[in-house]
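Q&A log
Question type: sequence-to-structure
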Amino acid sequence: MLRAEHVALFGLLLTAGALFERLSALRGGRQYVFCHASEAVDRLTYTALALVLSAGAVSTLSAIALWWNKPRSALLHLACMITVVALLIAADGVDARGESRAATIAAQRPVGDKCDYIPQDYTATPGWFYW
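Response status: OK
Response body:
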């Protein structure tokens, strides 16, 4: 039988794994360098981070709600778990879109061209669902 603790543990472990994956990718992931800041890439990065943090919040709040209400059916427990997974899949999709956008911007920079400003780099953080 699923319990509220299972929902919290499942969601928080997945969220911690997603955060760890993104932080470890910063040390050795694919990097793209472009001369000018890109608001689109920044927006995608912050959106992906917000989705990952939302997954952690949903798992915690769902566990509290499930513990408080104690539903008889496991359907609500499963729905909460599916919501967490859906948020993490969405975060990976947004990250994949950000990498695609960064690759497009980096490809527009001529080879050997020096930047007028300090170059901005983007490190790809591939997820579990998009390679």
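Response note: Strands lie at 31-34, 120-123.
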